[in-house]
Specification:
7 helices; TIM Barrel; alpha/beta
């Protein structure tokens, strides 16, 4: 479970509730001191993410899909800075393009900005079979309860982004301290 947080307090709470990582929509420089969990930034350049102490940065195929090499350049910049590069895709075409041009290890299957008429959970689930075995798949979709998380896990999603206040609900109670 990855927890979407908006600051240090939410990051500490998510860590205490059993989150495996925290996710930020934008760079915040004060988060690294608040948690030991890995930090994924969704909307930042690799340089900004690295400077803020993030462990990973999302790179959206949308907007970088021209043949001008920008997608490859941003990906290479992230890797050179020691960041995990999470490739955000919204449809089969973006997923295939990412596989052909980058062959990344981690995908963010996003329901953001897609077809408004389609069910967001179904859109993410439809992308999952196209993710090759051995690659990690993170679901970026608004979750409507424990059943949706269970459905994503059964389908093979490796992680789900949930709100920081929802982590305990989805992971259950943490094991007792030994």
């Amino acid at each position: 479970m990855l927890a979407a947080v908006d600051g240090p307090e939410a990051a500490r709470a998510a860590e205490a509730d059993g989150a495996e990582a925290v996710v930020l929509d934008a760079v915040r420089g004060d988060l690294r001191d608040a948690t030991e969990l890995p930090i994924l930034v969704l909307a930042a350049t690799p340089a900004e993410a690295h400077q803020a102490g993030a462990d990973a940065v999302a790179v959206a195929v949308d907007g970088l899909d021209d043949e001008d090499g920008r997608l490859e350049g941003v990906y290479a910049d992230a890797v050179e800075r020691g960041l995990d590069c999470v490739i955000a895709v919204r449809d089969e075409d973006e997923l295939q393009l990412a596989l052909d041009r980058l062959d990344p290890e981690i995908f963010l299957l996003s329901a953001r900005g897609g077809d408004e008429d389609a069910d967001p959970l179904e859109r993410v689930l439809a992308l999952l079979p196209d993710v090759p075995a051995g690659k990690l798949a993170i679901a970026d979709v608004e979750i409507a309860g424990v059943d949706a998380v269970a459905e994503l896990e059964r389908a093979g999603v490796d992680a789900v982004i949930v709100g920081a206040g929802s982590v305990a609900e989805y992971v259950g109670t943490p094991p007792p301290a030994v």
